[in-house]
Structure formats: structure tokens, C-alpha cells
Amino acid sequence: MRDIEKRVESLEGRLQQSSRAKRPRLDSRSEDLEYLSGDEADSANTRTSHHESTSTASPTQPVSQVPVETGEGDKRSYALHNSKGAMRFFGASSYLSIVSPDGACSLESQTGDRSLRSIAHRSRSRWRLVDWYPPGLQPSTFLNQSGLQPLPSKPLVLELVGEYFDFINEATPLFDPTGFMRLLDRQFSWNPDPSPSWWGALNVVLAFAYRHRAEKAGDGGDGWPQCMGHIRNAMSATTELFMRTSDLLAVQTMVGLALFFQGTPNPQPLFIFTATAIRFAQSIGLHKSNSFGLSDLQVEERRRVFWLAFIMDADVCTRTGRPAAQDIRDFDTPLPASRPHVGLGIIEYQGERLPLFSILAQFALIQRRAYDLLFTKEALDKPVSERAHAARACLEEIDRWKDSIGHSLRPQRRFSFSPEQHHPFLPQIMRLHFACHCFYISVSRAYLVSRPQRTTSEQGDGFPSPSLSSDEFTAKSLEAARSAVDLLGQIDDNHFGQSFEWSIVYFPAAAVVALFSQIMLEADHPLAASDLLMITRTVGFLSKLASQEPDTYVDYVLSVCSGFERAAREAIERGGVHEVGSRSGREEGRSSAGRPPPEPQAEPQEPGALPGADSGIWSLDPSEAASSHAWRGGGGPVPSSSISLGQDLNPTTDDQLLFPPAPLFWNWQDMLAGVPPAYYWNSQDPNTGG
């Protein structure tokens, strides 16, 4: 009887603990840290330290959201952490900076509306920093006793490898076909290559081929379990690769794993494998132009592998605001040739030959230059005018890059194609377009964003110089956001596969925040109604993904975007556009220049002060707050500038410019805690019944 009573008491304790975990998050003591900064966060930590030390940390512990620094620290950066010590950092280039001290106060200073904080506050329970490991990468019934996926028969392997080189390696040239096939022939001989790097590379290729088959066939085939089995095989070799001398195959394995996880909802492997690939590449000299006595074909393959790693590194750096693994000042590997000898990285579409791989490498280099010029600690400490000139130089550079692409494949306002024009490499082109549009948003934000503290030389009369038009940058930012959302229509009309959809969730969600910010700042501008419809369209796209697989990070993204949609709709209704999308509503909209912003929904404060200013969040002068309402979508001819990206940027008379706080954008890429439905990680595997 005592044993039974103990078991009952134990079960009751577990039920009570579970009930506490399921209560509304507002009941949690650790929520005191939600929007605190500076000394308030420190004191809150002191108050809750005893409570946290006596409680058991669990994956359901709430996530605290606090600035990463106090006092004079970087108020454009942001970090999330929970009571277990897990933390994720986002820097200035990250779209998550919308909830940094500068980000939140910038929008509130111009609108008096605290919707941003309330939306994030309501949505935070939809995502938590948890230790998530996909069951699909753990041993299951289709694996043998060693925990590895057996290799298919030689005919099937040859078939799969052929599909990989035909549909994947052509646009993303990770391997040289001749050299790979030589090693594959040896694999089925009496003396196979025993190196872990070859084992990892072979399984990466097989995993991509199985995923390609599974996405073509839909959810009913056995491609997904086979795909995950071979990814597990490749990952099983990583520890041994860390302990051995590196070779090119080791770098290719790491790059391949990074590319694979780019198309899944879990970002951590993407970040780690990308950084590891760069370090492996450096260890064998891929970042240098030396030939080291190798043949021309070997040198060309090494350079392709380096640039693939560089492309991934630049992508991660830009979207998370974290330093890249490869310093752009310390490599001299030539860019991929536009007409390579082996023909890899070249695609043909509607009669045009596009050097896609070379274009991707050039874009990655522009991304890295922009990050160093605009978002590093050194760049953020420069005068506003220097950063403004740097932003203009970056936009001029990206414009030249766009002009080098054929018109039919160039990123543009409305890129479309008919189902009859479907091309196997269109997903790569579409993703490039998404990234290009978000680059415009990011750089425009760097131009428009106001510094939290200005020197005397930078405090002018509060009006932008005509030669550096903030309206023009605003128009570019909004045009890019609308273009990104427009691309969702092509995804709906063409089946690119689940891995593609999961890899681009970040882009339209970031565009939503740009459109939301514009509506909150100027709810009756002529395109407010159509921008709201674009937000609604993106929410529908996120809803579709969330319905396919519950309990993923998309639930959080969807919740926040839905909150933005509601707030934007209410702002438009307050601005006089009662019938969203109607012509009469748009025509009746008044100019915001003649209408004061809505009254702040907060306690009265000193003139010019912002909520939370006393706790380390910056505030504006009354004159600055008044002028900061000049956030419009107008434009004009692009002023010319002779500044290049590699040129020293010196202050000019534009030091006296005042740039209004920018539209604020979010980073979704790192908020990944779920899985695509086709992986069967949270549902039944049709082949194993698990």
C-alpha cells in the first residue's frame, strides 16, 4: 500500500507541475524580464534568483526577452534566453532588432502606439527556446543495428547520384562529377575508400537525391525516411572529421550538410556546419588563390567549394547579425568564372544563359561588404553621414549587380512565369530574388535609422539634405517588401517542394514587418490598403505551413504576423480608410503630414520621452520626435554618388543631417523549432508505422 501511495503522490506532483507549466505565461515570475533593460533587468534577476534556483528547469520555461547590454551598450542588438541558460543573439542587421531598445522606441516615438510591444508580449508563449532534436535523425526500424542507413544497391546508387548531378549539382556545384564517380566506382570494388570524409560526402549526395524524389512524389513515398537516414550517416562522420586532417571532401561534406539544413525548420545545424565548413576550408587553403601544384580542374573545384561556403556564411551573417566566419579582408580566392571550363553553375532559361553560381557569389560578397560598412560595431560608431554614404554606395553596388543579370531573370517588382516555363532551377532563382529584395530593405533601414545618441556636429536643423533623400530610400524599401510578398504567388502556382517553402519563410515574414511599420507610421498613405492585403496574404501562407505541422516556430511567426495584421487594420480604420482595399477608401485617405499621430496608450511622460527611457532605452528631443513623422513612400530620381564600397567614407557637410528612425524589421530565420510535415517527425511514418 505504501508503494501505491507513493506512486499516487508522485503522479499528483507531476500533474501539478504540468498544470503550472500550462498556465498563462503572465503568471510566471520570470516574465518580469520580458521587456526590461539595464538596471531593471539586473534587479529583476536578483528578485527571481532564489525562485529559479529552487525550481527545475524544463523546456516549457518561458523565454525572457532583454537587451544584451546596459548603459552605453549596443541598443540595436537583442538576445533571447530562458532560465536554463539557453540564449540566442541577434545583431543590428537582424530583423529581430525591431524589439531592441532602439527598434521598439523608434516606432513608438513616431506613432505613440505601443502595439509592437503588446503583440510580441501576447505571442511569446508560441515559441520557446527548447532542446529540440529531430526524432527522424535517431535510430528507427528502417536502420540496422549499428544505427546507420544501409547503402542502396549499386544500380540504385548510380541512379540517385545521376539525379543529384542533373538536378542539384548543376546549379549548386559542390562536387566535380568526374572525380566523384571515380570514388563511387571504388566504393563498390574490393578496396573502397575508408575515409570518413568520403562516407559523409556520399551520404550527403544520396540524401539530396532522396529528398528531390520525395518532393516530386509528395508525402506518400519512402523518400523522406531514406533521406533522413543518409543525413544521419553523414552526420555520424562529423566527429571523426574533427579529429582528422582535413581534405576537400571534408569541406564538401560540411557545406552539403549546411545546404541541406537550410531547407528545414532547424537553423542550428545550418549555422554550425557553415562555420565548420569555413574553418575546414581555411585549414586546406581554399581562401587563397594559390594552386599548390594542383591541376586546373582541381583548383577550380576548390574555388567552387570555397565560394559555396562563403555564400552560406554571408547569408547567415546578414540575417542573424552575427559575425561571419570568413573575414572579407583576408582572402583572395577569385570569383567563379561566368564561363567556367566544366560548365557547372550555368543554367539556361528562355534562351538565356545565366551564370547563376557566379551571380550568387557576387551577391554574397556585396552582402558581406554591406554588413561590414553598416552593421559592425565599428560601423555603428561612425557619424550618421558616413553610414548614409555607405548605404548609398551599397545600393549602387547592388543596382549594378542587378543590371548584369539578363532581364528575364533579373530581380524585379513583378517576376512571373507560366507553369509551361517551369524550370528545375527556378527555386534557386526565386530564393535569390527573395534575398535581393530583403537586401534592399536592410540597407535602406541602415540609411534611415537614427542613432540613439548624436554628437553636436550631427545635430542639424532636423531636415534631410535633398541630395540624400530619405523618401527615396523609403520607397526602395517598401518596393522591395512588396516584391517579396508578390513572389508568394509564384510559390502557390508552382510546387517547388517543402524544403523550399521552409527555406524562404524568413523573407515574406520580414517584408510583413516593413509593411506593418509603414502602415503604423502613415495609415492613410495611398497604398496602405493594398499593403494590408499583402500582409494578409503572407499570414495565409504562414497559416498553411502551420496547419501542415503543428508546434513549430511558424506558430510563433504566424501569431506575431497576425497581430501585426490586426494592428495595421485598426490603424487604417482610424486613419479613415474604413473599407480595406476599396477605391473610395483609398481616395478619401488624408495626408498624414496634417494629422498628429495617435495619442500614446501609456502613462503621461515628459515631452519627448519614450516609454522605458529611464531604463536604458534612448529618447528623442521634442524637435526630433516631431520631425520623425516624415516616413513616407515618395521618391524621385536617384541622386548619383561617386562613393564605392572599398573607398574610405569621410564626413561632409551632410553631418548635420537628421535621419528619421527607420521602418523596423524582424529576423525569422533563427526562430526554428519545428519540422516540415514530410519528415514525419511528429506524425506517423507511413513506412514504419511509428
From TrEMBL:
User: So which domain of life are we looking at?
Assistant: Eukaryota
Q: What GO terms in the biological process aspect are recorded for it?
A: DNA-templated transcription
Q: Spell out the protein name for this chain.
A: Xylanolytic transcriptional activator regulatory domain-containing protein
Q: List the residue ranges forming a coiled coil, or say none.
A: none
Give positions of region: Disordered. 1-76, 575-649
Q: Where is the composition biased (Acidic residues)?
A: 33-42
Q: Which residues form the signal peptide?
A: none
Keywords assigned by UniProt, alphabetized:
Nucleus, Transcription, Transcription regulation
Q: Give residue spans, biased composition: Low complexity.
A: 602-611
Xylanolytic transcriptional activator regulatory domain ranges (all copies) = 270-342
List, as start-end ranges, the regions of compositional bias called Polar residues. 54-64
The record's section on SMART domains has: Fungal_trans
Q: Which PANTHER family match?
A: ABC-TRANSPORTER-REGULATING TRANSCRIPTION FACTOR, TRANSCRIPTION FACTOR PDR1
GO MF terms here are: DNA binding; DNA-binding transcription factor activity; zinc ion binding
Key word Transcription regulation present: yes
What are the Basic and acidic residues biased-composition ranges?
1-12, 575-590
